[in-house]
Amino acid sequence: MLTVKNLTHWYGKSEKPLYENVNLSFESDKVYTIVGSSGSGKTTFLSFIAGLDKPQKGDIFLDGTNIKKLGATNYRKHKVAIVFQQYNLLTYMSALDNIMTALSVTDSEHKGEKQYALDALKNVGIEKSDAEKNVQKLSGGQQQRVAIIRAMLVDANIVIADEPTGNLDGENSKMIIKLFQDLAHAHHKTVIIVTHDPEIADHGDVKISLENCQFVVA
Ligand SMILES: Nc1ncnc2c1ncn2[C@@H]1O[C@H](COP(=O)(O)OP(=O)(O)OP(=O)(O)O)[C@@H](O)[C@H]1O
């Protein structure tokens, strides 16, 4: 379980904090969607729970341990996987190698990695011939599926996504949300998605709105 305690943040000299005294918990096996107007601080919040940045005040705990104690690098490498709108794949590699690279960083003992990755890609409609092509030759929807499969296969229990369907059409978006649901419900991960897309937001198990500097759980 990921727990946010008394989180308060403001940027620079701004008088009004983005949010004040936020307390929230995120459990495994659930998809959380976070919505809120532009500039309300959604991406900033993700950067805190991803260990990419630190709030002015407050703490984040993973299964009871403050992430400060886990160490930022360890936390980012082993505990969280991040899926961005821009896919964030290594563009000079194939889809398969993007996944293999991530696996060997996080799980060097994994056996039969290549077949495992190929099977996972095939399950989301990416055949071996496409998996072995340079990833830039794949469509946007395919690249996002590769990014999600990568998040699925690394051993991180928390999956964080910032506008993961922002560049995709309706059909691809539906496939992506199914994959996130699968990550939570079949792979027992905690999935936290920031989205502007109301359809994606409604497919979460828990919907959270960031309004007037407060996170409101629907
Ligand atoms: N590094 C920074 N320094 C100063 N202000 C920042 C910084 N990063 C973000 N901000 C400001 O903080 C506010 C929240 O930004 P953030 O990107 O978290 O919002 P958001 O809800 O994700 O917005 P959007 O939906 O448009 O992506 C914005 O007003 C933004 O300009």
UniProtKB/TrEMBL annotation:
Short name of any one Pfam family annotated for the protein: ABC_tran
Keyword Transport: yes
Signal peptide (from-to): none
Key words of the record: ATP-binding, Nucleotide-binding, Transport
Molecular function via GO: ATP binding; ATP hydrolysis activity; transmembrane transporter activity
Entry-linked CDD domains: ABC_MJ0796_LolCDE_FtsE
Domain of life assignment: Bacteria
Keyword Endoplasmic reticulum listed: no
GO cellular component: plasma membrane
Ranges for domain ABC transporter: 2-218
InterPro entries linked to this entry: AAA+_ATPase, ABC_transporter-like_ATP-bd, ABC_transporter-like_CS, ABC_transpr_LolD-like, MacB-like_ATP-bd, P-loop_NTPase
PANTHER family named in the record: IMPORT ATP-BINDING PROTEIN, LIPOPROTEIN-RELEASING SYSTEM ATP-BINDING PROTEIN LOLD
Family affiliation: Belongs to the ABC transporter superfamily.
Full protein name: ABC transporter, ATP-binding protein
Naturally occurring in which organism (per UniProt): Pediococcus damnosus
Organism classification: Bacteria, Bacillati, Bacillota, Bacilli, Lactobacillales
